[in-house]
Amino acid sequence: MASNKTNKGPKLRNYLLIKPNEASFIQFIRLLFFPNLNKIRFIEVSEEEGQKLRDSFFFRLIVAASAFVQKLLLTIRVPMAKIGDLLDKNIASGDDKYLGALTVMAAKLAYESAAFVTNVVQLKWKMQFLGFYNYWNDYLGTLSTPVFLFQDAKINAKLVVVAFRGTHPFSADGWSTDIDLSYYEIENVGKVHRGFAKALGIIQNDNTMPSQLLEQGKDGIDLKPYAYYEIVKLLKGILLLNPKAKFIVTGHSLGGALSAMFAAALAIHGETELLGKLQGIYTYGQPRIGDQQFRTYMEQKLSKFNWSYKRYVYSFDIVPRVPFDDDNFLYKHFGKCLHFDRNYTGQVLEEAPDKNYFSLKWFFPKLINAVRELIRSFTLPRSQGPDYKENWFQILFRVVGLLVPGLSAHGPQDYVNLTRLGTVPALVGPDEPIKVLIRP
């Protein structure tokens, strides 16, 4: 157990932790109608947050729903199909679409094995491969936070790209992380999602926040490889050898959440030198990662440092709309939303339409959209060429999307398509006007 004396960084204030494995029908009834938190095994909560839970039936209902869905997902074990690996040859490095096209393919490639990723980066993309790593995830208790790094010498004197792996379709662990409502409150920062913070390693199983890599190993702290600290060490070494280089962090789904959380962790730990080298965060189908205070904190950092945050949201994608958000509830997005409709027409918005997935007024629009997306999976290859042909797994995923509208919209394929066929905001800083390239 770490001594509090060695922790120089911000302290945790409050927390709400959900343990779906320990939930049962009786436990759900107790939470909803007899909220004696001492007898509810699947929740661990601080006193202040516990009082909020006792006072609000709506809060208890949302927590119960989150635990129920997580428990249901634990029974689902279906592997993800292989995905494409070719960059669009029609988008050159000087094109405003280039960084979107590069990062979405990196986010997509992150789902593959280390050998496959190495082969693609070196032999097909002709770029410098910097390594594939799988870091310790305290949330799941396994080595299950994969990330790879590479350098693109075509722009910015070797741009370094850090790509986190996202949520596999039908992966119980990944989807459980996305929809989990558990959180920690970090002093002067706000509340952050428990699963994402632990997957990155900025909060560890003994609920400590080590502020420096060197503190690992002191006072009995184990030496598991935590993603945040290891990646910081790698980036400092890489950028030391090439002082003119900058880096981008990217990911799809869970990978997008880890990308945004990584930038937040740099700010929390005062890594101003690395923040100065951060060119941008590009996320695709990213879930929410913090509360209103956290959103304010991150938007202040966006205005202070010269890096951009591009949060792509396609159509009625379910994941950017979870965990739950309304005017009074916890999780919020920060920064602008780059929203694309079914025709891949893009807009820069404060928030995507239907910010709450469970809103009934959007059910039929989502269902109609899912039907049209299934039809498009057969027509798009005819109009745009064989690169847009979807495999049997992707088509099956579209069919499943008819039962759960918005689910199939989360697939990486549509995010690849929108960077190629849609309107894409140009690469600009956070305070510069955003221009839009109109699709011919």
Automatic annotation (TrEMBL):
Q: Record's CDD domains?
A: Lipase_3 (cd00519)
Please, which domain of life does this record's source organism belong to? Eukaryota
Q: Where is the Fungal lipase-type domain?
A: 161-325
Transmembrane feature ranges: none
Swiss-Prot/TrEMBL keywords: Hydrolase
- GO molecular-function annotation terms? triacylglycerol lipase activity
Q: Which Gene3D superfamilies match?
A: alpha/beta hydrolase
Q: Name one Pfam family in it.
A: Lipase_3
Report any one BP term from Gene Ontology: lipid metabolic process
Q: Which PANTHER family match?
A: ALPHA/BETA-HYDROLASES SUPERFAMILY PROTEIN, ALPHA_BETA-HYDROLASES SUPERFAMILY PROTEIN
Q: What is this protein called?
A: Fungal lipase-type domain-containing protein
Organism expressing this protein natively: Ficus carica (Common fig)
